[in-house]
Specification:
The structure is a single chain. By secondary structure, this protein is mostly beta strands. It has a single domain, classed as Thrombin, subunit H, CATH 2.40.10. About 5% of the residues lie in helices and about 60% in strands. It contains one helix and six strands. β4 and β5 form a beta hairpin. It is globular and about 35 Å long. The N and C termini lie close together (about 5 Å).
């Protein structure tokens, strides 16, 4: 599968699990293979806003992938959208 869109959990460095929705895809730009996408937490927390390195994303059926948060932007007054860059094999 080259894309995934659906429920996911971000696992922060301290072990906190943040539920939300992920939209992930494989890189198609002919360069180095990779993957990345976005994650929108169900609830915006200080921990989610501060996430950067040493983060994992968990997809259904215990599929895990290592990610770095490369950016965060506000969608609405209470929601954020996080940009993710995958590290290692894609979990989808």
């Amino acid at each position: 599968m080259s894309t995934y869109s659906g429920p996911a959990r971000l696992i922060l460095a301290d072990g906190t699990r943040v539920p939300g929705t992920a939209s992930l895809k494989m890189s198609q730009n002919g360069g180095r293979p990779g993957w990345g996408g976005t994650f929108r937490p169900d609830e915006t927390t200080a921990g989610a806003r501060a996430a950067a390195e040493d983060v994992q994303i968990e997809l259904p059926y215990d599929q895990l992938g290592h990610v770095a948060v490369t950016g965060t932007r506000r969608l609405l007054a209470t929601q954020i959208l996080m940009s993710l860059s995958g590290r290692g094999p894609a979990p989808f």
